[in-house]
Fold:
Amino acid sequence: MDRSVSCLLEADVEGVADVTLSVAVVADARLAAERFEVTLDGTSVPTVELQDDHGTRLHHLTAVGPGRLRIDYAATVAGVAPPAPVDDVDLIRYVRPSRYCESDRLGAFARGEFAGLHGHDLLDAVSSWVGSRVAYIAGSSRPTDGAVTTLLSREGVCRDFAHLVIALLRACDVPARLVSVYAPGLAPMDFHAVAEAHVDGAWHALDATCLAPRTAMVRIATGRDAADTAFVTVEGRAELEDTQIMAIVAGDLPADDHRSRVAIA
Structure:
């Protein structure tokens, strides 16, 4: 399955800022082509590529600005990446509570709601519960909202759905983490976030929004929650003015049975 992905970001930088981008596909993606250009008022800006956990690629810009910053990224991914490796440290790290996935505050609720469920039955039940009880409403959540707020408000966007799935699974002692992806078929097109849970020796993708087929998704970043996977982080002041995301599949978009076992490529 060949997929073409791209993003165009434009921001006005006030003064001087350090910027870290997480928009490139994961390091072990099978790339047929890739382009990454960063300019400030039309002049090329040097970037330093750093590799984070799980093959996440960060591109760091030091002391840029003031001016209009433009990030232009595109890649063609040929075929699928190997399954996400399983590391013993990850199975400890991703069962702990984190900034946006407050599993320690949801323990009693999760154990009561999903009592007696284990393995894939638990994954299906949690994803279905969140998908049926939380309304997807663009702009309904704040950048600081976590899983507890989403549970109480019963509305959010993709990262809120993923955070709540992750927190409920961790509260049931299942390692779970967040993955940012390019998602062909998503409408309106944007960066997307899904959960990934460890059961039976492998990582499995869960998307409670059901907005795009998991089999076509392309991994960008993996971490505890949105704090680890933000597509742009600014140390300084910058105003995002334009975001254009594209993700398409060569040929027909694949179907997705959301109860099936899917690994993100």
Observations:
- The mean pLDDT is 96.
- The first strand starts at residue 3 and ends at 21.
